[in-house]
TrEMBL record, chains A, B:
Pfam families: GST_N. It comes from Bosea rubneri. SUPFAM superfamilies: GST C-terminal domain-like (SSF47616), Thioredoxin-like (SSF52833). Residues 8-87 form the GST N-terminal domain. The lineage of its organism: Bacteria, Pseudomonadati, Pseudomonadota, Alphaproteobacteria, Hyphomicrobiales. This is Glutathione S-transferase family protein.
Length: 216, 216
């Protein structure tokens, strides 16, 4: 069945694959499910039609038959549960992979996302340097913990899973900050994710949208 | 099977049920699973034994037979999948309930948690008022969206689910801020969660720990 997802008509990240539809595109590419994309302007995201699908007026959403879902983490988990390849078969290993999904979104992402936002919105504030240092101090602690746990392994817990998929999309937001490079095993981990054929297809697809919108 | 969870030896919230073990206790009480608690000092949370269970040195963890899990969201989902009462039987409704779990932790919690932290750690900083206003502006927008979606319903999507359980624990952190009271349906929603017998048992259990630690 072809899924329908929503994405920014013109992504504020200029096609760098940081918008949250990237996670869903990547998951769909990993499992080989066909999908179509409905593009939304910022205005359309606050209209009743979209709010009926996504109460907070965000992207992405996911529609498949009579199911409508929101929250990128929940969508990736739904795809992983319906198709092979993103969650282990063993029940305990499956629960642990899901723990890494939550760790990516609830333990790693908030400060990493705040840091991105601060570098855009608070750069001219008198407190900017101090705020950035406070955020980077928490991010460094978390990256240190994550690096220690990953060690020499390719992925966080056995084979590549939906937990790795979300973690890589979260860590990618640190590109250019220098923070990732302090842990060569984490930088290699992110590069390993970005080298997957499914990732590359998903990345190319979202970049093509931005390029077309900019040319148009 | 009796589960073993970890919690603060002396919770920094002084027994108000804001530490993340509260979610897990509540879920275990809802499904009627017995559990024991291992209490940790802040020092013990950074020792190798605990880091082997929880790479980021946080609480709670969850052990059951040969399964060890971390991340409160993943633990609640695991409990909900193994027992009845926290997820609908219908597959689509189940995916939607899980979407609310992610919405609670990834869309609602970050700024609500940051606001709590800022009122403690940043009160004397020159940016405090502006930072608080920025956080509350986002929180207000999200609460408005959530209030509109909830409407007159008791719970977010049909019967009480793990999505409501997590959302109530996240919104509770706004007690005392005045923000929840701007939406009477959300204040009533939180009160409805807090009135559940399973919630009350879980709350009493964590409060007893704090009271004993303070008396000792």
């Amino acid at each position: 069945m072809t899924a329908i997802i929503t994405a920014f008509e013109r992504s504020p990240d200029r096609g760098r694959g940081l918008a949250r539809d990237m996670r869903v595109r990547w998951a769909l590419e990993e499992v080989g499910q066909l999908y179509e994309v409905r593009f939304l302007s910022f205005r359309a995201m606050r209209e009743p039609l979209h709010l009926s699908l996504q109460p907070f007026g965000q992207i992405p959403t996911f529609e498949e038959g009579d199911l409508a879902l929101f929250e990128s983490g929940a969508i990736v988990l739904h795809i992983a549960e319906r198709h092979g390849g993103l969650l282990p078969g063993d029940a305990n290993a499956r629960s642990r992979a899901i723990a890494w999904m939550f760790a990516a979104l609830n333990t790693m992402e908030p400060q990493i996302f705040d840091r991105s936002l601060a570098t855009i919105l608070e750069r001219d504030q008198p407190w900017y340097e101090q705020r950035l240092q406070a955020l980077e101090s928490i991010i460094r602690k978390r990256l240190g913990d994550l690096s220690r746990r990953l060690g020499e392994a390719d992925w966080l817990d056995g084979a590549f899973s939906a937990g790795d998929l979300l973690m890589v999309t979260v860590l990618r937001r640190l590109h250019g900050s220098g923070l990732l490079e302090e842990h060569p095993n984490l930088a290699a981990y992110v590069a390993r994710g970005e080298a997957r054929p499914a990732y590359r297809r998903a990345f190319a697809a979202q970049l093509a949208v931005f390029a077309a919108a900019s040319a148009g």
